[in-house]
């Protein structure tokens, strides 16, 4: 198993936020953690990223504990956080520069990926020159270049308008089919979770527990117009019931 989160609990100021969380991500899977705002998604994300310590429980990456060890997984935050004064290329290659690769070599290594990520011709532009969707693609490319076994994406598409978001979902599934980046995706968007994930964990109740786990069969994703199908609606109803909304 790539990632195993076992019996993780965390409180702030004597208030338990997440309780006895168990989840896993297998190699190549896209798994969503779905919960309403304030349910503790970011709290769990920070624990997996090694930025925060749980009160109890363990986090294993490839069978090795990564508790309190930042830098073991790559992550992308809600806001893309590209540096405004660096060109797109210079933003994207940061993970390579951090590992000591020379800028010239980093640019050579990243060059073919600009086309893959739909950023050809924008290498020398600045983040402000890009659309919101392009900025998210650049941030995702930067996350990918961290070259860690697992990527944590915290609501990567939440700041986008509905049409751009839908286009980016299609793009995301295409690129994932090529790069097979194992991903734990945090979202509060039920449709997004259903469209993008192999499996979904629903975070609900107070304190938050994993209240449901839903596998989306590949055949459903492959079907045309999955989003308009009865199966989609049934799964959405189930999640709405899980979330008590
Ligand atoms: N460092 C902290 N100190 C005190 N309370 C905190 C801290 N971090 C988070 N919390 C509390 O934990 C709860 C869960 O917050 P968290 O950010 O994990 O939720 P979330 O599901 O990611 O929400 P959103 O979708 O709005 O980002 C909130 O009530 C928040 O106020």
Automatic annotation (TrEMBL):
This is Peptide ABC transporter ATPase. The lineage of its organism: Bacteria, Bacillati, Bacillota, Bacilli, Lactobacillales. Pfam families: ABC_tran. It comes from Agrilactobacillus composti DSM 18527 = JCM 14202. Keywords: ATP-binding, Nucleotide-binding, Transport. It comes from the Bacteria. The keyword Transport applies. InterPro entries: AAA+_ATPase (IPR003593), ABC_transporter-like_ATP-bd (IPR003439), ABC_transporter-like_CS (IPR017871), ABC_transporter_ATP-bind (IPR050166), P-loop_NTPase (IPR027417). The keyword Nucleotide-binding applies. Residues 3-230 form the ABC transporter domain. One of its GO terms (molecular function) is ATP binding.
């Amino acid at each position: 198993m790539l990632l195993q989160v076992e019996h993780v609990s965390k409180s702030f100021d004597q208030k338990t936020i997440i309780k006895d969380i168990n989840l896993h991500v297998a190699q190549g899977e896209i798994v969503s953690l779905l919960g309403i705002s304030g349910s503790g998604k970011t709290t769990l994300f920070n624990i997996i990223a090694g930025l925060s310590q749980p009160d109890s429980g363990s986090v294993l990456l490839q069978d090795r504990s990564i508790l309190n060890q930042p830098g073991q997984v790559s992550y992308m935050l809600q806001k893309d956080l590209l540096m405004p004064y660096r060109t797109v290329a210079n933003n994207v290659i940061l993970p390579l520069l951090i590992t000591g690769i020379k800028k010239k070599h980093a640019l050579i290594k990243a060059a073919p990926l600009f086309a893959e990520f739909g950023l050809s011709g924008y290498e020398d532009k600045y983040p402000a020159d890009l659309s919101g969707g392009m900025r998210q693609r650049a941030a995702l490319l930067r996350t990918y270049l961290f070259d860690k076994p697992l990527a944590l994406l915290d609501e990567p598409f939440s700041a986008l308008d509905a049409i751009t978001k839908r286009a980016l979902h299609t793009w995301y599934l295409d690129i994932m089919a090529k790069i097979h980046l194992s991903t734990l995706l945090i979202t509060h968007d039920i449709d997004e979770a259903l469209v993008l994930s192999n499996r979904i964990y629903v975070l609900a109740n107070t304190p938050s527990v994993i209240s449901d786990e839903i596998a989306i069969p590949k055949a459903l994703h492959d079907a045309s117009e999955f989003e308009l199908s009865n199966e989609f609606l049934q799964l959405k109803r189930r999640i709405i019931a899980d979330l008590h909304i």
